[in-house]
Amino acid sequence: MFPKKMFLSNAPKSSEFTQNEPPAPTRVAEVVVAPKLPALFVADLHLSDKRPQTTVAFFDFLSGPAQQAGSVFILGDLFEYWAGDDDAGSVFNRSVCNALSAAVATGPVVYFMTGNRDLLAGQGFAHASGVHLLADMVSVRFEARTLLLAHGDALCTSNREYQAFRQQVRNREWQAGFLAQPLEVRRASIEKLRDQSEAAKYEQHAEIMDVSTEAVTSLLRSHGYPTLIHGHTHRPARHTYLIDGHRCERHVLPGWDDHAVWLAFDGTEFSVCSDKHLF
Predict the structure, then answer these.
(1) Taking a C-beta distance cutoff of 8 angstroms, is the pair 83, 187 a contact?
(2) 154 DSSP 8-state letter
(3) Does any domain span residue 8?
(4) Domains of the chain: total
(5) CATH number at residue 122
(6) Does residue 68 form part of some domain?
(7) CA distance linking residue 185 with residue 163, whole number of Å
(8) Whole-model pTM?
């Protein structure tokens, strides 16, 4: 299916992924202290077997730029969807898990935060891939700077219908009921929801789909005026704010479209990089 590295030789068997449980808040990190530098940040890859070029770009990123980094942070929507940890046994999902595991074995510490598309990724996924699970949100503390990481969808507060849906699907009882259904039923349900979501985007104003300035300001104030990094909106940019006399930054990560793109941090400065060029 893919013309380049698949990392399938040591892939776990599908029988190893028969247990599902909702991701437990007590099992994810809410604070990361002194991660190794440089740190790379990515989000919204939306990997699937229908986007082979993006998948190849991710494998090349893991075996290339990521190997020169101290840590890699994946801030949600790594997958187009994740139906539960028992879905890690599929050929495609297995290849991604094995690529991550191979990268961790020879290079950086990889941290993973669920997004709205892969919020059911839990301990089974972490075990298969070697990643460290992160809460949404999480503080990352370097010596001279604190970063606040989020997927970003919680900040889109103008979209009230979506926020109600987000609250529902992150409820542990709802997740337990959903994960109790057969895998094929879950896949079909997610495919239907995904199609409905794409159709709804054309009917909503751009402002509703973006983060709320009020939500961002409140978040930065409540966390001591850090630098915020998030994805979800697919609107890459660097924003600056002056809040209560404090200068804050917000970096929005780009989505991937057939090539790799990431935000790099060396402890002092940020730079946006891709497998094509340096911005």
Answers:
(1) yes
(2) G
(3) no
(4) 1
(5) 3.60.21.10
(6) yes
(7) 24
(8) 0.88
Give the CA angle between residues 45, 49, 54 to the nearest 5°.
Answer: 35
Give the least confident one: 13-17, 142-146, 208-212, 234-238: 13-17
Tell me how far apart the alpha carbons of residues 225 and 153 are, in angstroms, rounded to a whole number. Answer: 20
Measured CA to CA, the distance from residue 129 to residue 168 in angstroms comes to 27
7 assigned to some structural domain:
no
Nearest to 149 by CA among 253, 256, 78, 25: 253
Contact 249, 228 (CB under 8 A): yes
Q: Domain residues for 191? A: 25-274
Residue 96 belongs to some domain of the structure: yes
DSSP structure class, residue 255? P
Q: How high is the pLDDT of residue 143? A: 83
pLDDT in tens, 229-247: 999 999 999 999 999 999 9
Beta bridge partner(s), residue 263: 41, 272
Three-state secondary structure call for residue 170: coil
